[in-house]
Amino acid sequence: MQYPYVHVADETEVDHFLVVVKALNAYCTATESSINYIEARQLFEQYLSRVGKVMESLTASMEQEKNAAPTNREYTEVY
């Protein structure tokens, strides 16, 4: 649960994570099965690793855009 709190200021990521937890619990109830916590941990670690790479890439792209020289675009008002 540290990942959502570290990476976002609002509760959006927490809500996304909790939807997955609720869905997994509902699945286990419906199928009368239990959670394999070793497999779940591996899956969550893989997911968070991939998300981290995406976030790094997005951050780099946004930093480049933010630091780019201003353009000389002209804007036309639309009526």
Content-based structural category: mainly alpha
Strands, count: 0
Structural domain tally: 1
State the helix count: 3
- Gross morphology: elongated
| Low-pLDDT segments | none
Would you kindly provide a written description of the structure presented here, covering whatever features stand out?
The protein is an all-alpha fold. It has one domain (2-63). The protein is built from three helices and no strands. It has helices at 2-7, 12-31, 37-67. The model has no long low-confidence stretch (mean pLDDT 79).
Features:
mainly alpha
Summarize the topology:
Elements: H1 2-7, H2 12-31, H3 37-67
Q: How is this structure best summarized?
A:
By secondary structure, this protein is mainly alpha-helical. It has helices spanning 2-7, 12-31, 37-67.
